Amino acid sequence: MKRIHLQGGTVVNSGSSVVADVLIEDGCVVAIGKNLVVEDAEAIDCAGRYVMPGGVDVHTHLDAPMMNTKTADDFASGTRAAAVGGTTTIVDFALQAKGQKLEDALNGWHQKAIDKCAIDYGFHVAITDLYDGAIADIEGLVRSGVTSMKIYMAYKGAIMLDDGEMYEVLRESGRLGAKTCVHAENGDVIDRISANLVASGKTGPENHALSRPPATEVEAVNRAIAVSRIADAPIYFVHLSTGGATEAVAEAQLNGWPVAGETCTHYLTLGPDLYDLPDFEAAKAVLTPPLRDSNHQEALWRGLNNGTLGIVSSDHCPFCFVGQKDLGRHDFRAIPNGGAGIEDRMRVMYGTGVAGGRISLEQFVALTSTNPAKSFGMFPTKGFVGIGADADIIVLDPAATTHISAATQHQALDYNLWEGWTLPGAITHVFSRGELIASNGRFVGREGHGNYLARSAV
Amino acid sequence: MKRIHLQGGTVVNSGSSVVADVLIEDGCVVAIGKNLVVEDAEAIDCAGRYVMPGGVDVHTHLDAPMMNTKTADDFASGTRAAAVGGTTTIVDFALQAKGQKLEDALNGWHQKAIDKCAIDYGFHVAITDLYDGAIADIEGLVRSGVTSMKIYMAYKGAIMLDDGEMYEVLRESGRLGAKTCVHAENGDVIDRISANLVASGKTGPENHALSRPPATEVEAVNRAIAVSRIADAPIYFVHLSTGGATEAVAEAQLNGWPVAGETCTHYLTLGPDLYDLPDFEAAKAVLTPPLRDSNHQEALWRGLNNGTLGIVSSDHCPFCFVGQKDLGRHDFRAIPNGGAGIEDRMRVMYGTGVAGGRISLEQFVALTSTNPAKSFGMFPTKGFVGIGADADIIVLDPAATTHISAATQHQALDYNLWEGWTLPGAITHVFSRGELIASNGRFVGREGHGNYLARSAV
Amino acid sequence: MKRIHLQGGTVVNSGSSVVADVLIEDGCVVAIGKNLVVEDAEAIDCAGRYVMPGGVDVHTHLDAPMMNTKTADDFASGTRAAAVGGTTTIVDFALQAKGQKLEDALNGWHQKAIDKCAIDYGFHVAITDLYDGAIADIEGLVRSGVTSMKIYMAYKGAIMLDDGEMYEVLRESGRLGAKTCVHAENGDVIDRISANLVASGKTGPENHALSRPPATEVEAVNRAIAVSRIADAPIYFVHLSTGGATEAVAEAQLNGWPVAGETCTHYLTLGPDLYDLPDFEAAKAVLTPPLRDSNHQEALWRGLNNGTLGIVSSDHCPFCFVGQKDLGRHDFRAIPNGGAGIEDRMRVMYGTGVAGGRISLEQFVALTSTNPAKSFGMFPTKGFVGIGADADIIVLDPAATTHISAATQHQALDYNLWEGWTLPGAITHVFSRGELIASNGRFVGREGHGNYLARSAV
Amino acid sequence: MKRIHLQGGTVVNSGSSVVADVLIEDGCVVAIGKNLVVEDAEAIDCAGRYVMPGGVDVHTHLDAPMMNTKTADDFASGTRAAAVGGTTTIVDFALQAKGQKLEDALNGWHQKAIDKCAIDYGFHVAITDLYDGAIADIEGLVRSGVTSMKIYMAYKGAIMLDDGEMYEVLRESGRLGAKTCVHAENGDVIDRISANLVASGKTGPENHALSRPPATEVEAVNRAIAVSRIADAPIYFVHLSTGGATEAVAEAQLNGWPVAGETCTHYLTLGPDLYDLPDFEAAKAVLTPPLRDSNHQEALWRGLNNGTLGIVSSDHCPFCFVGQKDLGRHDFRAIPNGGAGIEDRMRVMYGTGVAGGRISLEQFVALTSTNPAKSFGMFPTKGFVGIGADADIIVLDPAATTHISAATQHQALDYNLWEGWTLPGAITHVFSRGELIASNGRFVGREGHGNYLARSAV
What we know:
Four copies of one chain form a homotetramer. Chain A is an alpha/beta fold.
């Protein structure tokens, strides 16, 4: 029986911070107290440090085929990077291929992940082809612990569902207590704007942002909310990037409707100046929706603060600049859409959010760990430093700093969007179920440690 | 030179009512005055009566192939009925067939109308198939006086455009100073709800209303407004039936956006109790959107009063109960969608609106005549009793009454939705360009009197 | 029997413009027509000019004691200036003195005006002291043609009523079909901000604007609307200056509530840069509410265009720079609050609005003449070039220009807020009941021509 | 060193529920853990029970002179009742008398409370007379731990401040990091409506509700928010009773403004049918604002659920039916306004909220304990079962029930608004700083145990 004694840190949960010891036994938290007297335990001095739940990242795309290529991280490299960055749980999107049964899509993703993961993991299933009987097959997913589906309102001809199909997924998921995650952009309008841009010779990566104006997100969010009301089902918006979308979610919540939304690290901290980079480097920031200006950034921070947006995810969807992004060198529409951040999310949110004075420590924990765990059926096992919870714990030293660079990252990527940033705060220890898996930026865990998480319905 | 002297009536325009004589010469109004001294004119005593501009109905479907049949009125019977009902101008929807060029669609409609019409007429073109080059062909339509297009957000596989196509039509029409009329319903969701109803054995006509809940209209209106903003183009919603849609239009107008909307006679005056009729008679009220409850009716009247909705049209789209509506006896989805009203609109709006105390006389003129003429490029030729305007004039006796019945109507239809209603007010004279074409409910005009109206862009 | 024949002008009303002759007989319009054949009439060639209803200015303060002085224009000079500027009707505010009966206040104002006015005039009564029985005395005012009251939400200790008193005035006026005009500013907060500014040594005229931030108007408008709803009575806001107030009025109107508002010439065309004038000259622009920045100006123009604000008045409340404004040289709170504009309103609105492309000719007529006449019980006698209306008519030459300067104005004032402006358009003729009272900037009428207008309740 | 060992209960905080032991030492929580091994402690079996933070009631009026009488509970009886009802902290309103210095008002309240209280207590100061220098005196209050002021927008001539005075209190409190609590009703309008009711012979207690329509609260809330924005200060609304007020607070929060609000037990659970009670018994429910209909109740519950309203207080303001309420037998305006609930709040909220399925257990803790402690500068000492917190803890048995009756209550009152209600759940133990002060509905604490709480500024 392995015991770890975290001594004298400030234990931070989403609703409180107390100076206390934490005792871990058999991978779980078993006691929290003042100056606990513990025998036979490995003692770690946490004085002056924050002891917090490990990150829960509910939006990742590992080993995922997209746009004629595949995301650059598989479950080994991706979860290793997550671990180093302080994230101890992910929920990845299993993407149904055209013609594939939902169960087969899920099984395929299990094969990708098994024996590879450094941390615990769950799956959403992204429904892209509503074959006859697909709706009936959702129940099997939910029974196996996949309690959230995803649908796309963009990318027609590839993975987009129409509004009627979205209605059916919402209705059945709602009936089963499962959540429907929605990529909300008006794909039809975007496809037209994009085609017009290309037709007029505007093929460079900077046109990506022009092709997806804020209104294309806001419209889709409003529409999806309306459809969710007709279907009488909860809805969750992934990667919101605009003030208008945030307001739409807020208005819905005021009506008491089960509408929720996440934003991502990059929408909060990076702006459209990246699209001004020369030499095709703007392609590094070709992710969807695109980066927005500071008005939108401010609106998103305000949305985090007033509770409209409860979750910050990474939307980790990495493509290398060389060999992947350049597929679209002659037509921005062919640039694989996506950015990385599974390793950066916790650091950037602590450094810009907490140290930057925009959110409290407790909000940081809520947004990066507790809320995603609660929203996706993993609390209090995950997202919590409390009695009975998994000892997925990070120790953060507020007096140290973290430097971000592609040269030192664990993400299998040849660039980093926050290249050269030095941020206040450093994560010194990362525990997954009581095992130390990362230490001061080094990975010390192992492939295959991570378990599949069957998640609860609501 | 023919002269008519309307003596001593109350001349009502959208902004004023005065007791005055009106002198008509060569089909136009040439003088208005107190006790005009006129020689060589046919004098008509209008004392105690209202002298008003003839109705302008901008939403009719004559001789139109739809849902495996054709609307019951052609341009002869339809415009005759219009004339008797006090309407002196219509704008009909030329419906593009699949694969047809826009110009050919328009020409086909010209063939249907020419030499048939009792009153002047113009055309919108409903774009249903965005073939390569379709967008470029819009300019030709506008040049020939078709300054408004229509698109459908419902009826996928038949006439619906997707949002990207809608965007293109809006953008080009806006560029040309033309208006885009939109049938706003979320067809994809409606098709799913409808299929689910039929799959569960709910095939009767009363299910039509269940399959198109108010939210399907409100959503589509919000979406189309959003797309119109991206396209930077004006938009006009046909046949709005819900409070939510009215509010959406109002909010847009407050922002200063060029967003407008009409409602129809039946949404203001008929309710969903018609769907309770037995023996398939509910099919008579299968029109789209369906009739709504009194909350929506009140919201629409309020929208007329606060200026949000500026036009009341008939959406005249007649199908006989016997031989047409019964195509859907075993599946409500196959019932031809539409109701009649080209003959009833002015009577019902005067009787329920003015006599019923809901709108003023001047609002009546604005909603049924002046506003549609202004909005669709026909003012001040039409919609106006003023110097230089066409003498399209009705005389209404407020002391008389009008009885509505299928037995006496001029619409080529075997039923009437207002069957048995007796309304205050009777139209005693209808002039088209100075010619008397209807008198006390009798048609006294002639086929072919009506001219095509090339309308202005804005 | 005097007859005037205005030939070939463009006759503009709020809803139409037609090229036509206008025949005036015995002070009224008796015929409008194409090439009228008229004998024994004075013919005036109006070709290429606009023939429009004379201005109706429903917000003036003539011969009014205020802030230890009196407004600089009496009814003689004020109405002469109005006439030259194209305004043919005013409604002035009879201001109740402390302890004075309402009837006596009104009679006092009758004495000021009688035999002095160059144009027709009516009165509102401003209720400033709700003595016992005051509410019961309102009915007498209404019977004598004063169908609108005014109350102030600012200037405590002088003329302000509290919310309970406002409620009583609203309730009784509403019961009688009379309107309540409201000066909406939170006077209590303003007094505190002002006192704090002075206490901290900020005594200059530029502090006037700081002491009355936009929110003090918006709050008061929202409050007054709420109180009007409790009282179930119509409400009319004078001199709105902010976007927020405009939105509040708009939202109320969407609910179908009888809420209306005016703005003034200066809020549309002048900005806060005037408060930067040196040498106490900023005091010239010390009017209430203060001038606002361009965001507010744009919101007001938008409000005019979308129908939220239906009236533009002058709020003519003149105080000379020398001898009056300088009463507050050492404390901005003692500067008499007010600006002039009775002579400038029509010129500035035509020049900036119509010629400036912001409003149509017909909107110009509506905002400056027809709407105020309709709203305050004077239509169709005033505000209309139509059969039976008073021949209060202006002729405007769009090809000429007008220069504004204190040196040439008829207002009894030593400065002009639009000093040095040259505007497109010149009013060449002004008729009051068929008599020419101004011609190309010269007054040719006479004192005492103007009659008192007993106005209708609604 | 006294130690208490709460064994095996479900420890509920605002963000989590875990089965765990709690160890109390020297009045504080020192450890929480699975099966803690503890020596020398009093063990209490909590299996199957909830171990939760004691209630924090931030709105009470004990020993308070009002309306020619005094509230029926003093600090002895009031805090005893609180203790039995599961409340372990109150913040009472020290009410400034006319002419009294703020410091003296506070000292007077200290005298009332000292050596009397069964539980810990703090004070707000209600500012009712803004004497010269009052604003400067606020800082002294804050320094002594009174970090919240209160002002009244009703009761003119007694305790009401005008908007300018409210502005000054907000501004200074905001500057000092203190909160301004606002009683938001438009007193001026209410006084007029009340006087009109009485003048027309409507003097019975049921008229109390008519005299304070929902709009009088909504208006005042909107106004106070506007004034708080001008003052750039946080604002907190006491006893919100309407849907409209809740929406106003929600809209403000969406803007990111520091606006918060509480509602009270009775607004959530009692309706206006109490005003139909015969024989003057309606006077029992004469509290301010009055009880509202179910639409408002639903809106308040929705406000609790979507986070708009974060606190439920009792607004304990008790007056006996005999000898106090009957002061207004002939004029409802003289009925002392107020109801009781210091003893009932926790029971009713658990029974109707948690057991009734309207809120979760964790929300119950948040609303009745954690949030008030956080909002008013007492967290984590109060409102928390966590390491280092005061051991103010209740144990609740969900399988038992509680019966409410005046016959058995500890409130010094001759009636109870929830008379005869039997509610799921019973509080079996109440600890204040580790001492058992109530047990199964019996008071076992002592007068004088309670300490004054100097609260933190924000």
